[in-house]
Amino acid sequence: MNKLELISTLKERANLTKGEAAEVIKLFFDSLAESFVNGERVEIRGLCSFHIKEYKSYTGRNPKTGQKVQIPPKRLPFFKCGKELKERVDY
């Protein structure tokens, strides 16, 4: 399912206009992204949780040339599936 299909499903199930459904989806994803920027944990009970993993700087290797490269520190979102979702998928 992509973003347009999600908007379409929300429109049909919640009896909203396409613009209203798009705004709800936009607000949800913007709020999620803002929480990530602030380093906050996001939990949607029964579905999943997201948190930010912080990685330190390290020395990597360019696979094409074999040359050593310094990789800067980074922060990446990490997804963890919830118990109820696991059970629904693996019925």
Report what the structure shows:
- With 91 residues, the chain is of the alpha+beta class.
- The protein has a single domain (3-89), classed as Irregular (HU Protein, Chain A), CATH 4.10.520.
- 43% of the residues lie in helices and 30% in strands.
- It contains three helices and five strands.
- It has a three-stranded antiparallel beta sheet. A two-stranded antiparallel ribbon has the order 3-4.
- β3 and β4 (68-71) form a beta hairpin.
- α1 (3-14) crosses α2 (18-37).
- The relative contact order is 0.12.
- The model has no long low-confidence stretch (mean pLDDT 93).
Index terms:
elongated, alpha+beta, three-stranded antiparallel beta sheet, 91 residues, two-stranded antiparallel sheet
What's the number of helices?
A: 3
Q: Could you tell me the strand content as a percent range?
A: 25-35%
What CATH architecture do you see? Irregular
Structural class given helices, strands, pairing? alpha+beta
List the helices and strands and how they pair.
Layout lengths: L2 H12 L3 H20 L4 E3 L3 E8 L2 E4 L6 E4 L2 E8 L1 H7 L2
Antiparallel strand pairs: 1-2, 2-5, 3-4
Helix pairs in contact: 1-2
